[in-house]
Specification:
Blueprint: E1 6-10, H1 14-26, E2 30-34, H2 40-47, E3 51-55, H3 63-70, E4 78-82, H4 87-95, E5 100-103, H5 108-122, E6 132-135, E7 138-141, E8 146-149, E9 152-154, H6 158-169, E10 174-175, H7 177-184, H8 195-207, E11 215-218, E12 222-225
Parallel strand pairs: 1-2, 1-3, 3-4, 4-5
Antiparallel strand pairs: 6-7, 7-8, 8-9, 10-12, 11-12
Length: 231
């Protein structure tokens, strides 16, 4: 298992940590575990994990605070573990830079599926498979997962990059929530979840696009990237 993906679990509940370890190791993930939010930064620097599972409620430093600290130097994918059906917790987690969230109690099948999906999207492609997409002034390097606008680099989280990449591949098309949720999160849109709207809002802010120069809201339908399709 030397080449197994490394998952850093940040969880102060010993029982939940044991269950998570058992579930992930059964699926050939290597799990490293810390108990406090203030240990996250040092753990990521020393372990270089492929993904972080970050509980929201932690001693010393909350998951929100830990994620914000992590995002000052790392774009490692983060899945936030939140309270059951707590929209405010979920939105706060995404707002801090998390890529996804899972409600507790965690279902093993769902956890493994979300981790696998996120790792598949964020791991670099094999050498020689680099693809460059250009949509108007936006340039995306899928291999390096880098974005520039008019030659200026834009710092995006993994989730924001995936969202922009999807819009770029469908430039000029309206993408509704029924398409965005299963494509980016692997779950159907339930008619109430606001996390995708927050993700679009954060992406607009990063792009300096509050006026809708690139991403336009289509009333009652979804969102559209209003620049030419990539060639």
């Amino acid at each position: 298992m030397d080449d197994a993906p490394i998952i850093l679990l940040v969880e102060d509940d010993a029982y939940d940590a044991r269950l998570t370890r058992r579930a992930l190791e059964k699926h050939d993930f290597r799990l490293e575990h810390v108990e406090r939010g203030d240990q996250v930064v040092d753990a990521v620097r020393s372990l270089s994990p492929d993904l972080v599972l970050l509980d929201l409620m932690l001693p010393v430093m909350t998951g929100i605070e830990a994620c914000k600290a992590l995002r000052t130097f790392s774009d490692v994918p983060v899945i936030m573990l939140t309270g059951l059906d707590d929209d405010e917790d979920q939105i706060a987690g995404l707002g801090s830079g998390a890529d996804d969230y899972i409600s507790k109690p965690v279902v093993e099948r769902l956890l493994v599926a979300r981790i696998t999906s996120l790792l598949r999207r964020t791991r670099r492609l094999a050498p020689g498979t680099t693809e460059i997409l250009e949509a108007g002034p936006i340039r995306l390097d899928e291999d390096l997962r880098e974005v520039t606008i008019d030659g200026e680099p834009i710092d995006l989280s993994s989730a924001e990059f995936d969202l922009l990449l999807l819009f770029a591949k469908h430039a000029g098309e309206t993408l509704d929530r029924d398409f965005l949720y299963p494509t980016l999160r692997g779950i159907p849109y339930d008619g109430h979840d606001r996390s995708m709207d927050l993700r679009v809002s954060r992406l607009r802010s990063k792009l300096g696009d509050e006026a809708g120069r690139f991403l336009r809201s289509v009333r009652g339908r979804g969102y559209m990237l209003t620049v030419p399709k990539p060639t």
